[in-house]
Structures are given as structure tokens and as C-alpha cells.
Amino acid sequence: MAAVQQAATALEAVELVKTYRTGRNKSPVTALRGLSFAAARGTVFGLLGPNGAGKSTTVKILSTLAAADSGTARVAGLDVAAHPERVRRAIGLVAQKPGTDPMATATENLLLAGRLHGMPRRDARARAGELVRRFGLADAADRLVRTYSGGMARKLDIALGLMHRPQVLFLDEPTTGLDPQARTELWHEITRLAGEERMTVLLTTHYLDEADHLADRLAIVDHGTVVATGTPEELKSGLRGDAVHIELAEADGRAQAVLQRVPELREITVDGRTARGRTDDGARALPPVLAALEEAGVAVTSATLARPSLDDVYLRHTGHSIGATGAAGATGATGAEGSKGLDASQGLGASQGLEATK
Ligand SMILES: Nc1ncnc2c1ncn2[C@@H]1O[C@H](COP(=O)(O)OP(=O)(O)OP(=O)(O)O)[C@@H](O)[C@H]1O
Ligand SMILES: [Mg+2]
Fold first, then answer.
1. Residues 6+ apart with CB under 8 A from 272
2. What burial letters (b/e) apply to 216-234, b meaning 16+ CB within 10 Å?
């Protein structure tokens, strides 16, 4: 039974804690505070969170580049602390920062990666050819990487991670900085890897649409811990009713109190010029909301209603909007209620043996 579970759960992090020392007389930075999740084999698992949430730190621990202070992690059934060499053979890592040599060609970069993984020369040549074709780089394969566009370089980064046919692929923000077309192409390839090749992909992203589109399951990470986990649909359906989104003409300290007096509206957060809330029936709630703001002299530039999005899920669990936070800003207001229903431990149990497909 244990063996079956091991095979089905390709990635597992349990209560990971990691603190970075930042020098003498400086206070250490706690990057992870008990982060847990599990991902089934052949699925795309997304870690979604703002700058500084702890996504790259998690990837570094799972890929053996950093050691956790406490907690355990298993990759392809192997404990990362006990078997780092075997874990390294089972994984491909595409780090947040490029890993290619700009003064070499794509083919040279790929062959070097093959050699580092101990691949026989002929096998490496064949695999390099296959990968440049698959990523649309065949025509540019013998050009220096220095001359590549951002999208081409990122594709090559991913091809490098795939050279030795890993079981598990880590993609740390694979599409940041890419244009929409390059992003769509990469999305397609990531979906194909999990679907056709049964690869397990751990993807980190700040993009809600990316997590929504790609991830079979995802964990929302904030301040080094998982605040919600589930499929994108589960997370969205955990929210009742419509989201109300109001843009104010200018930031106004009175908005929060005014909106709190409108009985139709709940879960109100005001962040600069943006006010958000939830309501059972958006069409009924909007007139009293606008009337209350007008009566108080708070000028509104736009008001919209929307079905729950992952952004709303994010806001609900973290108290701040993902777009509005930077590394330091992540300490923002916590207006939202605690997570309900979909917490980390539940997600962990639910994904044991799960073979989710989109
Ligand atoms: N080597 C390091 N030394 C000190 N602090 C670090 C180090 N690496 C990360 N941190 C800190 O740990 C926290 C988590 O960083 P991490 O890189 O894991 O976040 P992230 O979610 O990947 O963010 P981003 O979206 O910006 O890539 C941050 O506060 C960061 O400043
Ligand atoms: Mg990062």
C-alpha cells in the first residue's frame, strides 16, 4: 500500500521551515514557516504567491539546492535530505534566473547539460535535436544564445531542464517577462509534458491566469505558508456570490466605513483606490453601494461585478490582492477571514493517489 501511495505522490512537502541568516547583527529572514503540500504524479501543481512568499525557497529545498531547517520533503518517492544524488537524477530544474551560457549555441548548451547528466554522446545529440525541434528552436540551434529573444532563451532554459528525461520538472516562474504568444506556447508545452509524458510539474507563478489555466491543483502561498489549496475550480467555488469591484476617484479613508454600512456587502477590503467586497446578488447590491458612497461624498470612477476569480480566492485567504503586493508590501492589511474548508492538510490528504486530469 505504501509503495502504491509513493508512486502516486510525486512531490510532498511536510511542514517545511527555512530561515536565512543575513549577516551579523541583522535579523534573519524566515522564508518558510511550515509549508506543506503534495502533488500527484503526472499533474501540474502550481505554487501561487506574491514576491517573497517563499516559492523559490520551496523549489530550492525540493531540488536539493537548499536544506530545510525542519520538515521533510520527498520527490519521486525519495527523501531529499537522505538521497540528494538520486533526487537530482530524477528531476529537471528550470530556475527563476537563466541557466544558459550566452556565449554558446543552443546545441552546445544542451550537449553540455547531457554530459553533466552522464548521457552517452549519441543519445545526447539525438535528444538535443529532438528538443530544439519541439521548442521551435531548430533554425536557431547553432546561433549564440546571446542573440536570442527573451522567449527563445526561456524555451532553451526549459529544454535544458528536460535533457535527461526527468520524472519531475521544477519550473520557477517560467513565463515571467514573456510576450503573450510565447507564454501561450509554453503553456501548451507544459500541459503536454504532464499529459503525454506523465511528467510531474511543479510550477511557481505570480500570475493567477497562469495558475488557473495550467495547474491541476494549486497552493496559494503567503508569508511562507500555504493558505489555501485545491483545484482552481474548488478554490473558486468556495466563494459564494459575486465580487464587487469599485475604483474610487482617489484613495479615501472613509470608504471602508461607508461600505461596511451597506448590508448587502460583505468581506470588504479597501486598498488605495480599489475597494472590493462580495455579495449574494450583485445586481441588487450595486445601487445601494453606489448610493452610500455618493451620499458620503466618496467619488467613484467605476464599479464592476464579476464571478469569483482566483484573484478573489487569493484576496480572501491573504487579505491582499496579488497584484498589489511586493516583497515588503506582503505585510498589508488582513481584512479577510481565515481560510475555510480548503486548508493545506486537507489538500495533502486529498491528493494522495489522485490522478487529476484537466
Ligand atoms: N539567500 C537568501 N538570503 C536571505 N534571504 C533570502 C534568501 N533567499 C530568499 N530570501 C528571503 O526569503 C523570502 C522568500 O524568498 P523566495 O525567493 O523564496 O520568494 P519567492 O516567492 O520566490 O519570491 P519571487 O516571486 O520574488 O521570486 C524573501 O523574504 C527573501 O527576501
Ligand atoms: Mg522566486
1. 251, 324
2. bbbbbbbbbbbbbbbbbeb
Nearest CA to ligand 1 atom 31: 52
The C-alpha atoms of residue 117 and residue 132 are separated, in whole angstroms, by: 18
Give the predicted TM-score (pTM) of the model: 0.77
Q: Which residues line ligand 1 (CB under 6 A)?
A: 20, 22, 29, 31, 49, 51-57, 96, 206, 327
CA angle 118, 120, 126 (to 5 degrees): 120
209-245 pLDDT, tens digit each: 899 999 999 999 999 999 999 999 888 877 778 889 9
Question: Which helix H or strand E contains 160, and what residues bound it?
Answer: helix 150-162
Neighbours of ion ligand 2 (CB under 5 A): 55-56, 96
Where do the domains of the chain lie, and which CATH numbers do they carry? 2-235+344-351 (3.40.50.300), 240-307 (3.30.70.2470)
